Amino acid sequence: MATPHEQLQPRVDEAIDAGEMARLRQLLADHHPADVADLLERMDSVQQHRVFQMLDDELAASVLDEIGRDATRDLLDKLPLDDAALLLGRLPMDDAAEILAEDVPEKQDVLLAAMEGDKAAGIQRLLRYPPDSAGHLMTEHYVALRKDMTATEALAEVRRMDAIAETVSELYVLDDQGHMQGVISLRELINLAPSAVIGDHMTTRVISVQPETDQERVAHEVAQYDILAIPVVDNGRRLLGIITVDDIIDVLVEENSEDILRFGAVESGSVDQPYFTVPLLRVLRNRFGWLLLLMVADTLTGAVLRQFSTRLAAVVQLSFYIPLLIGTGGNTGAQTVSTIIRGLAIRDVHFSDLWRVLRRELLGGLLLGLALSLVAGTRAWLWDRDLQLALVVGISIIVICTWSNVMGSLIPLLASRLGIDPAVVSAPMISTLVDSSGLFIYLSIAGLLLTGAI
Fold first, then answer.
1. Is the torsion defined by CA of 94, 100, 101, 104 positive or negative?
2. pLDDT value, residue 271
3. Is the pLDDT reported for residue 158 higher than 80?
4. Where are the alpha helices (DSSP H) in 67-212?
5. Which of 135, 223, 274, 444 fits 211 for a cystine, CB–CB 3.0-4.6 Å?
6. Which pLDDT belongs to residue 1?
7. Residue 16 neighbours by CB under 8 Å, 6+ apart
């Protein structure tokens, strides 16, 4: 089934070719900003800017928030300063702050100076916080109640703030100084008697984060407690803003994309954008460094083969099982790495669990190795009818699987302890390590057991 933007593409092309600009404008106005952004990302820079200028201000601002980083920068660079400031001013504060901080940091000051004073001041407050922090994600537009309000008064306040607030699903009860006293959901509020007092029905135990909290930790809190918005408070419990679930979803998608790229030894940042919007040379530059590093590291495998060249020449059959053994070891290690990284990401596993994890993975690798050795050893015997060789293959599988499991758990735990993203180093490192060390283990065992042949 075609996606909305795939359905839209031929109709837009037809309108552009026919020069029917009014029809094109109406066509784009009838579609969701995300679909329009997908469409623009597939256009060249000139056509992209031409079509973007046909959008009304509200749609253009929403599209600016949905489109990729390079396209956002390009569009803002081509717009007059006042027009660019106007569009950013129409966005929620947190979205505008993200664009200014990440997409056009060099134009941040001039764009803020061209915005309305209140809007610019609010965005500047968010920009004071570190990138990828709760403070950078929050909005100051929420519904605040007092605990002495009746349900009728509270509902009147919700109606008054509805057009301004980012969400009205959660309503925050504050004192006169803005300190958090509790929270009540809109669902709870509309079921109260008109004269019911908010303070008697609010929840006083409120899950919150501080503005410096990392965005990934914020996402974990929201997922852990199944809430639609999470308040951001200072050390004195004064409410600074809230982070809504739509921003949390964006964080999860961003972090997941970043981890997938790093797991494949690809630098994130410019690559975790829409595929067609990133210049090919930048993609290649980001990939080249890792590939060069891994190529150099892979010379260890060549060194091992050179060291055992006499042994391989004496028993040529040994070389037939090299792909099987290092492939199995690499797959075993990759599975373990994936499991441990997931455990670290969702806080199921911590560095303090190191010895428990190593014991568990040591046993797991041993059991997996025993099971796989029966298959590999039988296969070797059926191929070559050599019991000693089959024994070498079987024992090697056991040792390599156990070693790979232990290394696959140790590397991400050590990386996290050193403050390195485990996804950056774990997969490339385990692959390189298992190739060279697995080969060394296999040929060393062959040297011990094939004494008559070597």
1. positive
2. 45
3. yes
4. 69-78, 81-90, 93-98, 108-114, 117-127, 134-137, 151-161, 186-190
5. 135
6. 57
7. 24, 47, 51
Q: Which one-letter DSSP state was computed for residue 178? A: -
Ranking 227-231, 247-251, 264-268 by mean pLDDT, the lowest is 264-268
Indicate the pLDDT class of residue 438, thresholds 50, 70 and 90. confident
What is the fold, at CATH topology level, of the domain defined by 4-137? MgtE N-terminal fold (1.25.60)
Flag whether pLDDT at 7 surpasses 50. Answer: yes
The tens digit of pLDDT for each residue in 256-287 reads 666 655 555 555 554 456 656 666 676 677 66
pLDDT at residue 366 above 90? Answer: yes
Distance (Å, whole) CA 344 – CA 162 = 39
Domain residue limits, the chain:
4-137, 144-246, 298-449
Are 73 and 279 in contact, with CB atoms under 8 Å apart? Answer: no
DSSP state of 100: I
Alpha helix (H) ranges present in 79-129?
81-90, 93-98, 108-114, 117-127
Please state, in angstroms and as integers, the Cα–Cα distance from residue 188 to each residue in 20, 123, 193, following that order: 51, 32, 10
Distance CA 401, CA 419 (A): 28
Q: Choose among 282, 280, 273: nearest CA to 38.
A: 273
CATH 3.10.580.10 is held by the domain 144-246: yes
Greatest Cα-to-Cα distance within the chain, rounded to the nearest angstrom:
95
pTM score over 0.90: no
Superfamily of domain 298-449: SLC41 divalent cation transporters, integral membrane domain (1.10.357.20)
Q: Helix or strand or coil: residue 3?
A: coil
